[in-house]
Amino acid sequence: MHVSYQLYCSRKFGPIEATLAMLAEAGYREVEGYGGLYEDVNSLETALQDTGLAMTSAHIGLDMVEGDPSRVLGIAERLGIQKILVPHLAPDARPTDAAGWEAFATRLVKAGQPYRDAGLVFGWHNHDFELADLGGGRTPLDILAQTDGIELELDLGWVRVAGHDPLDWLTRYGPKITAAHVKDIAPDGQAQDEDGWADVGHGIMDWDALFPALREAGVDHVVVEHDNPSDDRRMATRSLETIKGYVK
Question: So which residues are the signal peptide here (predicted)?
């Protein structure tokens, strides 16, 4: 199983060069990019080469994915990115009913065509808003998962926050899940300075059940994430220690 690290976790902790060096020292071999990093691809490419880390996947906003596919493809080629994942949709742009989400899924498939044509994986990364009930138990994430041309990067933490069972989603949509964000949730009332998130293995998520379910679902790419750690080195190190207990 490939283990990666979402670099957004370390956005508050100094230059990318220092972050990548810290992750390499901690034992990571892969990372996942996010928006602001692509403003200086030269420096990013050099830092990856210097640390021996591979950027195997990347979060790239829908505006850039749709508006400048040639630039995105150029970045992917230079950095060796294999998976392009759209990570978010602003509240004022979110559809409000099933028909709207079906139209959005069609739009997303069209946006992903240049990347699929180039042999890349194209998909969607969820938060909690995609798990709202549209009626009859159907959610926006169901619509996206059931649409050909869209893979999922399933964020297990956000699934739990939305009141759903991550195990159920792994069972239902395993073949569509190209990667999973492994994210932990602190017990109620704890880690308020970290927005209620926890290092992997130090919260309430049942990893004893989730890691076997990930393997059973065929998910071979997991990405460590914590939205607001107070110490990214601590979070990166402790999370990887937990994961090593499940990934052989």
Answer: none
In the sheet with 83-86, reading across from the earlier edge strand, the strands are 2-5, 221-224, 177-182, 151-155, 121-125, 83-86, 54-59, 30-33
In one-letter notation, the amino acid at residue 18 is: A
218 Ramachandran zone, left/alpha/beta (phi>0; psi -120 to 50): left
Cβ count near 90 (within 10 Å) = 9
Q: For residue 135, what are the CA distances in angstroms to 39, 62, 93?
A: 41, 26, 20
Profile the chain (248 residues) by mean pLDDT over runs of 10 residues: 98 96 98 95 97 98 98 98 97 97 98 98 98 96 98 98 97 97 96 96 98 97 98 98 93
> What gap in Å lies between CA 99 and CA 130, rounded to an integer?
14
Give dist(CA 99, CA 22) in Å, integer. 45
Q: Where are the domains of the chain?
A: 2-244
